[in-house]
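Predict the 3D structure for this chain.
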Amino acid sequence: MPRPIPAKLIEDTARELMARAAIDIPADYRDGVRKARERERNRIARFVLTEMERNWDIATAERRPMCADTGLPRYYVRAGNEAVIEGGFVALERALRRATADATASIPLRPNRVHPVTRRDHDNNVGIHAPEVTYAFEPRADWVDVTTVHKGGLFGTDYRMLFPTDGVAGIKRFFVDTLVEFGKRGLACQPAIVGLGLGGSKDTCVRLGKEAACLRVVGSRNPDPAIAALEEELTALGNYVGIGAMGFAGTSLVVATHIEVAYTHTGGLPVGMHSFCLSSRRATARIHPDGRVEFRADPMWFTPVTVMRLDDVRMDEVELGTPVGPADLARLKLGDVVYISGVLYTARESVYRKVVEQGVDFPASVRTLTNVNFHCSPAATVRPDGTHAVEAVTATASFRFGKSMSRWFERSGARVVVGKAGLTELAYREWFVPHGAIYLTTVGYGMGAAYGRCIKRVVDVHWLAELGIAQALWVLEVERLGPFLVEGDREGKSLFAVANREINLRLEEVYRGLPPYAMGRFGETTARTDEII
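Done. Predicted structure below.
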């Protein structure tokens, strides 16, 4: 049982988060405003942006709230599935309410929360359903993330039920309508981060729009290429409208557009839009069971495939024995460094054809010994006395087995596949996840010697005469064979997909301005994030 996180620690952390959010502008937003000022040619709008930055400097230096209207303070809590909180989540919410009341008096924050009918005000930003607390959960974690957002509650927010025939053009129309409605006279306090929630039901799209505006950092992109492209289009469109900082003419209306989506009713296209104003106030801390508190700028609110970076991978070392049991499979996470001891087998194209396409039975003796399949060809030889020597093993690219994988799991009983380069997240979700299987990638193609020295003996060889040394099914006893990396986990996430999202951000910059070829090739893609195999 993990050590409980003290409720008092949560309260103290939340109080500090309130101060940081009210006083210190996030660096990502400030950098976005700086770039907007550099692009801005309208003198008045440029003057406004310059004075905004000066105000932020004063707020940080003198520890004053950056804006007297400190909005409606609220919290987003991402709790690890294994996290234990002293007193439970009821105690957590009480701690957040106490921290809000204390911070309202000590920072101070403006008391903005009143009863909607009687207008009763407790002067502490606490009341019925106030402050709001929204929860999300993280598998295989024992920490709690607390994010506070101070979000205005009046202007720059709207909802519209569009229909499928409205399409992207309708989304753009609604986007411009809302910007113009609140942009003139500076009612939305621009420049702003604009968040759009697309899809779901009405409440879902409005919630997603707020989270997109408040919880994603400037410079981030939706992992869906089509949505990421729409984000860029809307930002450019918003700044082409002609409205600048605080409603003056200019090109500094939108610092960034963030979109989050949800599957929706087949007959509708609901859209919710939020503007996170020039006082974009948020702060996050991760609270660990051992008492450590880590403050950071990025809430990392969305799913790991949206927010995870290679630097977030912990790379814990794991020893696996074969056959690998369900409990060992369940504890593996993306990026773990794995060493295998016991028995495994090699199987590649010819073996897959025999077992999957031709229906030849997988050797029962092998299935009893192990459930680990290495996509490789060994550097092996048959000695004069009939024994075998395997000096090196090198993985082959696993994408070539994709169409056979689901049937392979059924016929072979494999639950661990080792290969080179991996498959797509879609392949993992469709073929691996239903069978509880994971994919390990080799750390390099030329690791034959390091891997080969871990082979203790050849247990058996199947179909050697028929298929030859390179394609036969070799059954090998190994000791601490590795290292391998968990590339595809039990949830269908991919380590290479995380890497590719980081790479693609740079590729957009690298290819920007480079012209296409004068003549394209048949079937060629010009999208730098696409792969053709």
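The first helix runs from residue 7 to 23.
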